[in-house]
Design a protein that fits this description.
The protein has 153 residues and is of the alpha+beta class. The chain has 2 domains: 106 residues, Trna Endonuclease, Chain: A, domain 1 (3-Layer(aba) Sandwich); 38 residues, no CATH class. Helix content is 39%, strand content 25%. The strands form 2 sheets. It has a 5-stranded mixed β-sheet with strand order 1-2-3-4-5. The protein is elongated and about 70 Å long. The protein starts with 9 loop residues before the first helix and ends with a strand. 20% of the residues are buried.
Amino acid sequence: MPIYKREQTDKERARSKKAKAARRKGKAYEKELCLFFDCELQDFAVSQGNQHGKGGKGNPDLLLQGSIRTIHVEAKKGKRVNIKAAYEQARTDARGTDIAVVCSHDDYGPELVTMSLMDFADLLNLTAEQQKTGHVSMKLSKGITYSVESEGE
């Protein structure tokens, strides 16, 4: 039995090209962020997600794995980034103890990082505790207790 394929209209063809361009732009931004974090964060293992291949829902655009916390990063770049929707996606996809973060870059604005207030407070507390004592041992808002000694002590 022959398979019939209808020709795409000009409108459908243009929409398909725009979608491909948007995916390419997003993937390039993810790669740019991956390189940035890899250079700037010495205590984190940085990996790019595989949602463009076999991945998809639940896979982060970037995963930053540290000794204390793992950060689930959604990367968004475009003319008008919907930060609330992007954060909701990151929060839904992140595992229970992961910090959900959105790195967004509006075409005409600065790059921004969005996270929950409690996760932000946890990060500040971890940083302050480590600076004061050289190690971290504390209970965080998600009910998890962490204890890490600094190297060299």
